[in-house]
Design brief:
This protein is mostly helical and 121 residues long. It is built from seven helices and no strands. Helix content is 50%, strand content 0%. The longest helix is centred in the N-terminal third of the chain and has 18 residues. The chain is elongated and about 90 Å long.
Length: 121
């Protein structure tokens, strides 16, 4: 089943639960093993796979245990700045690197000391 905007919350939860159950079985994990790896109860895994609501932190733990947490980064990408914001920030960005500054010859001699001014004799 495809998840679309017209799907009910219950249908989406049921589909996600079925997909996670299939993924768990493909990885040859029992519900108890997944629960142990995720640090949640077996009953929570059962509720998740049955399409019942669970805490979002429990879902994150299951996704992490299945190696699927990074999928959330693709699912909800970081927002990009608006065109107006990019224009506003444009003047603040560096456009080139600066080379090393040339030192004065007097700086090459080391730190200044009293009597180094040269004209006092």
């Amino acid at each position: 089943m495809l998840i679309d905007p017209n799907s009910s919350d219950e249908a989406v939860l049921a589909e996600l639960g079925q997909r996670l159950a299939r993924t768990r079985l493909e990885r040859n994990l029992s519900q108890q093993q997944l629960a142990h790896e995720a640090g949640i109860s077996k009953a929570t895994v059962e509720r998740l796979e049955a399409g019942e609501p669970i805490k979002s932190t429990s879902l994150l733990r299951v996704l992490r245990s299945l190696g699927m947490l990074e999928a959330l980064d693709r699912l909800i990408p970081e927002p990009q700045p608006s065109p107006v914001e990019r224009l506003r920030l444009q003047g603040r960005q560096r456009h080139r690197a600066r080379g090393k500054r040339h030192q004065n010859p007097s700086e090459d001699a080391g730190p200044w000391r009293w009597g180094d001014e040269g004209g006092g004799q």
